[in-house]
Amino acid sequence: MSESFAELFEESLKAGQSMQPGAIVHATVLEIKPDVVIVDAGLKSEGVIPLDEFKNLNGEVEIQPGDDVEVALEAVEDGFGETKLSKDKAERIRTWDRLNKAHEEKQIVIGTISGKVKGGYTVDVDRVRAFLPGSLVDIRPVRDTSYLEGKPLEFKVIKLDRLR
User: Fold this and answer.
1) Closest CA to 29 of 17, 38, 21, 20
2) Distance CA 13, CA 127 (A)
3) How many angstroms from the chain centroid is the CA of residue 2?
4) Which residues, other chains included, contact 32 with Cβ-Cβ below 8 Å and sequence gap of 6+?
5) For range 19-24, the mean pLDDT
6) How many angstroms separate the CA atoms of 93 and 34, rounded?
7) Each residue of 52-99: pLDDT tens digit?
8) CA angle, corner 97, sides to 94 and 99, nearest 5?
9) By three-state DSSP, how is residue 9 classified?
10) Contact between 139 and 125 (Cβ < 8 Å)
11) Cβ–Cβ contacts within 10 Å for residue 85, how many?
């Protein structure tokens, strides 16, 4: 073994993956079990992610062993020696980044009206719920939006609030 620990450590730092909670890391799917997916993100231990996070809208699993996936690092160790990872959280972080970019550059995003709430409607943009004021649905007030619900529509991001 010709490499020293210092060289290996420097090499691991250059890999570019941050090991802070909330960071998005690349992982490789190792095994798909009936209720969980085991992934290797290059950490101390393999990560276990619920299988539901990898299912599409039809309930079908969209991955195979060997696939690369982006996951969010929730905790390097949870007290039981396991690495906590989440694919859903990584997708939400990426969606927030896209929404923030769309807001800054005044771009259009695609979303679906999913329900009615006081003063407006909820809009699903990927895995993030947004609010659409009732006054911005159309030029004139709209009483029945059933013809708009469930269809992909274009929206402009006017204001962002991650905490809400």
Assistant:
1) 38
2) 31
3) 41
4) 38, 51, 61, 63, 64, 65
5) 76
6) 27
7) 888 877 778 888 888 898 888 887 766 666 778 888 888 888 988 999
8) 110
9) helix
10) no
11) 24
Find the farthest-apart pair of alpha carbons in the chain and give their distance in angstroms, rounded.
74
Beta-bridged to residue 132, according to DSSP, are 121
Taking the C-alpha atoms of residue 69 and residue 88, their distance in angstroms, rounded to an integer, is: 11
Burial-class residue 38 by CB neighbours within 10 Å (0-12, 13-18, 19+): middle
Which residues sit opposite 156 in a β-bridge?
Answer: 108
Local structure of 128: helix, strand or coil: strand
Could you read off the pLDDT of 124-156 as tens digits, one per residue?
A: 888 788 888 888 887 777 777 778 888 888 888
The C-alpha atoms of residue 45 and residue 25 are separated, in whole angstroms, by 14
**Three-state helix/strand/coil letters over 67-103:** CEEEEEEEECCCCCCCEEEEHHHHHHHHHHHHHHHHH
- Report residue 14 as tokens: 């250059």
Tokens of 135: 């006054």
pTM: 0.71
* The one-letter amino acid at 86: S
d(CA 103, CA 135): 20
Residue 32 exposed, middle or buried by CB count within 10 Å (0-12, 13-18, 19+): middle
pLDDT, averaged across the chain: 81
